[in-house]
């Protein structure tokens, strides 16, 4: 029995509310169970120096957790004077995941920065950030297309992510914090709407896993991402 009472293949409730901030070109608040992440996308008519005059666009991301996103207060990283290693790793993951679903030639030489701020954490924050980040990015690109600044749609395929793991000896979908903290195997699966893999992060957290178990987790992830992509499309009106 899972702590939440869910079936092994059952996602937590998913909701995506768009247009939640006034100034960002694209924004959403994604809720996956008790994990809530605010995602905003900001357009800039410039690219990083290493891409100047390349004709290619750039999508990057930043990630952070509010001090009381967790059960005890965390110190703001800004007050510590630097980002932690986990934060840097996650925001790089978000950036390269979102870029996998973008035609950077069609985007043109401009940058879109996706900011993902965790308001409340209950497991799977990086997966929620990627899933919500795509929605914010899609909305920002819609504005570019509406004004005619971009003619050909650079968004090639939705991008979403879900966690899976081995909990109490069973392969389960969409781990919440009680499961994540106890899982023998923990994994994050980033995929496109057409079912292609972008990135898989798997680790043994106290128990090794077999190829058969890996295949089960991949099957669960495939089904979970399909549900998330359906929610993404509904949110942006596709």
From TrEMBL:
Residues 10-140, 157-221 form the Exoribonuclease phosphorolytic domain. The keyword Nucleotidyltransferase applies. Keywords: Nucleotidyltransferase, RNA-binding, rRNA processing, Transferase, tRNA processing, tRNA-binding. Its EC number is 2.7.7.56. Transmembrane segments: none annotated. It holds the Pfam family RNase_PH. One of its GO terms (biological process) is rRNA catabolic process. Phosphate binds at residues 86, 124-126. One of its GO terms (molecular function) is tRNA binding. It comes from the Bacteria. It catalyses: tRNA(n+1) + phosphate = tRNA(n) + a ribonucleoside 5'-diphosphate. HAMAP family: RNase_PH. Phosphorolytic 3'-5' exoribonuclease that plays an important role in tRNA 3'-end maturation. Removes nucleotide residues following the 3'-CCA terminus of tRNAs; can also add nucleotides to the ends of RNA molecules by using nucleoside diphosphates as substrates, but this may not be physiologically important. Probably plays a role in initiation of 16S rRNA degradation (leading to ribosome degradation) during starvation. Belongs to the RNase PH family. Homohexameric ring arranged as a trimer of dimers. This is Ribonuclease PH. It comes from Rhodovulum euryhalinum. The lineage of its organism: Bacteria, Pseudomonadati, Pseudomonadota, Alphaproteobacteria, Rhodobacterales.
């Amino acid at each position: 029995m899972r702590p939440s009472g869910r079936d092994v293949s059952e996602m937590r409730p998913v909701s995506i509310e768009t247009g939640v901030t006034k100034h960002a070109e694209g924004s959403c608040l994604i809720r996956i169970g008790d994990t809530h992440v605010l995602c905003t996308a900001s357009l800039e008519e410039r690219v990083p120096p290493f891409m100047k005059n390349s004709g290619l666009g750039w999508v990057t991301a930043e990630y952070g957790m509010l001090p009381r996103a967790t059960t005890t207060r965390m110190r703001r990283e800004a007050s510590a004077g630097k980002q932690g290693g986990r934060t840097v790793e996650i925001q790089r993951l978000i950036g390269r995941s979102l870029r996998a679903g973008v035609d950077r030639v069609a985007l043109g030489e401009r940058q879109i920065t996706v900011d993902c701020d965790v308001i409340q954490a209950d497991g799977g924050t990086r997966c929620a950030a990627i899933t919500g980040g795509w929605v914010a990015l899609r909305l920002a690109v819609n504005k570019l297309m509406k004004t005619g600044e971009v003619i050909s749609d650079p968004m090639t395929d939705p991008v979403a992510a879900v966690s899976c793991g081995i909990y109490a000896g069973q392969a389960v979908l969409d781990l919440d914090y009680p499961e994540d903290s106890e899982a023998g195997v923990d994994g994050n699966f980033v995929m496109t709407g057409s079912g292609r893999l972008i990135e898989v992060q798997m680790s043994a957290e106290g128990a090794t896993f077999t190829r058969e178990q890996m295949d089960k987790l991949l099957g669960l992830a495939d089904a979970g991402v399909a549900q998330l992509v359906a929610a993404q499309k509904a949110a942006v009106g596709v």
